[in-house]
From TrEMBL:
Keywords tagged on the record: Pyridoxal phosphate
Alanine racemase N-terminal domain location: 19-252
HAMAP family reported in the protein's UniProt record: PLP_homeostasis
Similarity section: Belongs to the pyridoxal phosphate-binding protein YggS/PROSC family.
Signal sequence bounds: none
Protein name listed in UniProt: Pyridoxal phosphate homeostasis protein
Its job: Pyridoxal 5'-phosphate (PLP)-binding protein, which is involved in PLP homeostasis.
Cofactor dependence: pyridoxal 5'-phosphate
Species whose genome carries this gene: Arthrobacter saudimassiliensis
Residues bearing the modification N6-(pyridoxal phosphate)lysine: 45
Length: 255
């Protein structure tokens, strides 16, 4: 692992306190649900690589990013084999080759074209690694992102859109991932729709998950829940939580 100097202790203390509070909320939610605490993914988008290193020192093993340009640079800078990188944003097909170089999982698989692109990217990455005498990389874990809105307008990219595939197309999308070499179907991902009770949305997600698992028993993971609604997500079976602001704090100035 590349050695880097760490920032001053003030930021570490802030992150430690925030992380402790979030972990406490997760543990309490899991106790209330009679469940195993979900895997915490610290969403570090817009924050520097130094914060990722500090979080790793505090026991965080999984980090999430939603833009490839930022994620690829940050993963190379941190260079910690103990970290798992999760791509959680909308992914353009032309970024697939870059993403498979560092990502442990992609949580936003939402269309057949992206499945095809990721499969080709994985094949190319294995060839690249073999040519450089590197071991092959593990299969890329894939979560199908589903749109949980109860009403989908003709303009599916309108102001209420949070991304994701129409639930009616999940079966075909899941079959495509399962049939693609180098990809591993792990489950579903969703964001609670704006203006809706997240508990209702995550209850629908759990129903969709149960149907998916009936056909693909290994695809039993649920990536759901963020800072504002993690308790509702845990209550409905979330296995992965994507928490950003409650751990990292307010988004830094982008000036």
């Amino acid at each position: 692992m590349t050695e880097h100097p760490l920032p001053s202790g003030d930021r570490r203390g802030e992150l430690a306190a925030r992380l402790e509070r979030v972990r406490g909320r997760i543990d309490a939610a899991a106790r209330n649900a009679g469940a195993v605490p979900p895997q915490l993914i610290a969403v570090t988008k817009y924050f520097p690589a130094d914060d990722v290193r500090l979080l790793a020192g505090l026991g965080v093993t999984d980090v999430g990013e939603n833009k490839d340009q930022e994620a690829s640079a940050k993963a190379a800078d941190v260079d910690d084999p103990g970290l798992r990188w999760h791509f959680i944003g909308q992914l353009q097909t032309n970024k697939s080759r870059s993403v498979v170089r560092y990502a442990h999982a992609v949580h936003s698989v939402d269309r057949p074209g992206l499945v095809t692109a990721l499969g080709k990217a994985m094949a190319a990455e294995q060839i690249r690694r073999d040519g450089q005498g590197q071991p092959p990389r593990p299969a890329l874990e894939c979560f199908l992102q589903v749109d949980l809105r109860t009403v989908r307008p003709a303009d599916a990219s309108g102001p209420a859109a949070r991304g994701g595939a129409d639930p009616a197309g999940l079966t075909a999308l899941a079959d495509a991932v399962a049939a693609t070499e180098g990809l591993e179907l792990r489950g579903l991902m969703a964001v609670a729709p704006l203006g809706e009770d997240p508990a209702d949305a995550f209850a629908r997600l759990r129903e969709l998950s149960d149907r998916l698992v009936a056909d693909h028993p290994g695809a039993d993971r649920l990536s759901a829940g963020m800072s504002a609604d993690l308790e509702a997500a845990v209550a409905h079976g979330a296995t992965h939580l994507r928490i950003g602001s409650d751990i990292l704090g307010p988004r830094p100035s982008l000036r």
